[in-house]
Specification:
Distance between the termini: 62 Å
Helix content: 25-40%
Number of helices: 7
Shape: globular
Largest sheet: 8 strands, mixed
Radius of gyration: 24 Å
Mean pLDDT: 90
């Protein structure tokens, strides 16, 4: 019993951090995340002060420098072995549910990305990029002529709980004869805590007449968004298709729990009367992922440990989208 009490006393700080982490996982209360971050910082300060008191500041600083150097060596050593500048990353959002969860720590490896591919000319690629931009029009959830309203997260969350009534100015499921590039939409089941909705989701894309469907066996990649992107930090999403443009590869990506592709993420909202329009343009848009912006493919995950990084970096609040999950696509 005495030995147990000694162990608990010596490791009280770590036990408090572990308890707060477990409590946050179950409650998602921001205050607990803040307390956990403070506990981590407080434990570091306490152990530094204790070390200085017992061995002196010079010895303690030397040990801190050695610990930092060891950490740096391990980081770059792992990066060298795994062929990536970022061997570890933490999942910040819920966009990859149910395959990756917020708070997961993921291991990356720089290797060829598993995804279907297609070759296009530079001229075709410029035309394709011009067709990637999407305008979503939201409005009242009441049928307006040929415009039938559908559930859609952007509309519910950003336009006074309205519905999707048009995509690029056309009815949601309007027929299209485009072959160079188009998005193919369908209904999917969106499950929340208290309700299940039929939602609009991108089912596939067509490039030069060939259809590429969402496939959960494709690799999940981590990439750095371009300047002026809608996304502002490292993004962990699945590769849908690789487009080879005269020796250069680009990827179209999508979160498993997102209704649309990354390149469709809107940067602007315009409200007019009872409707809203979400759109992107060259001032703020997500571009196809180039090889130079890729950090690697996800090869493993460790649940919950990533929360420690999220707390220290200030990602305390549970982001939008964690309350619902895309369960399946409806035929």
């Amino acid at each position: 019993m005495v030995e147990f009490e000694r162990i608990v006393k010596e490791n009280a700080g770590y036990l408090i951090i572990a308890a707060l982490l477990i409590l946050y996982v179950f409650t998602h209360l921001s205050v607990i995340g803040v307390l956990c971050a403070l506990a981590i910082v407080g434990l570091f300060i306490y152990e530094t002060m204790e070390g200085a008191r017992e061995k002196g500041w010079k010895k303690e600083l030397e040990e801190i420098v050695v610990a930092v150097l060891v950490g740096v060596i391990i980081w770059f050593g792992a990066g060298f072995l795994l062929n990536t500048p970022s061997p570890l990353d933490a999942v910040v959002s819920c966009s990859m549910l149910p395959h990756l969860e917020r708070g997961d720590m993921v291991v990356l490896r720089g290797s060829e990305t598993k995804a279907p591919s297609i070759q296009v000319t530079s001229f075709e690629w410029e035309e394709i990029k011009g067709r990637m931009h999407t305008t979503f029009t939201c409005g009242p959830c009441v049928k307006q002529g040929e415009y039938i309203p559908y559930n859609f997260s952007l509309c519910r969350n950003g336009c006074d709980n309205s519905c999707l009534i048009a995509i690029d100015g056309k009815p949601v499921f309007a027929e299209s004869n485009e072959t160079i590039f188009k998005y193919n939409y369908g209904l999917c089941t969106l499950k929340g805590k208290e309700e299940v909705l039929n939602n609009v989701c991108v089912r596939s894309v067509t490039i030069k007449g060939k259809e590429f469907k969402e496939n959960f066996s494709n690799d999940v990649i981590v990439y750095e968004p371009e300047e002026n992107s809608v996304f502002q930090s490292l993004t962990i999403h699945r590769a849908l298709v690789r487009v080879s443009v005269e020796g250069k590869d680009y990827y179209l990506t999508k979160g498993d729990n997102n209704e649309i592709l990354d390149v469709q993420a809107p940067g602007y909202l315009v409200k007019s009367g009872g409707s809203c329009k979400f759109f992107s343009d060259s001032r703020k848009e997500n571009k196809p992922v180039s090889e130079k912006n890729m950090k690697g493919n996800v090869i493993a995950r460790v649940p919950y440990i990533g929360y420690l990084k999220l707390f220290l970096w200030g990602y305390i609040e549970v982001p939008q989208g964690c309350e619902t999950t895309i369960e399946k696509h409806n035929e």
